[in-house]
Amino acid sequence: MDVTAHQDDGVHAHEYRWALPSVLLGDAREGGRVRRSTRDWIVDTLMFLLACGLTVLSLPEIQNAPAPLQTAEQILGALSCAAVWLRRRWPVGLAVVTMLFSSYLELPGGASVVALFTVAVHRPFKISGPVALFSLVTLAPYVLLRPRTELDRGWTAALGVALVLTVLAWGIVVRARRQVIWSLRQQAEVAADEARRSERERIAREMHDVLAHRVSMLSLHAGALEFRPDAPTEEIARAASAIRNNAHLALQDLREVIGVLRAVRPGDQDEGEEPVPERPQPTLADLPKLAGECRLAGMDVRLTLGVEDAPEGLGRNLYRIVQEALTNARKHAGGAPVAVTVAGRRGKGVSVEVRNPLRARHGLRIPGAGAGLIGLTERAELAGGRLEHGPTPEGEFLVRAWLPWPAKTTREDA
Question: Is residue 343 part of a domain?
Answer without folding.
Answer: yes
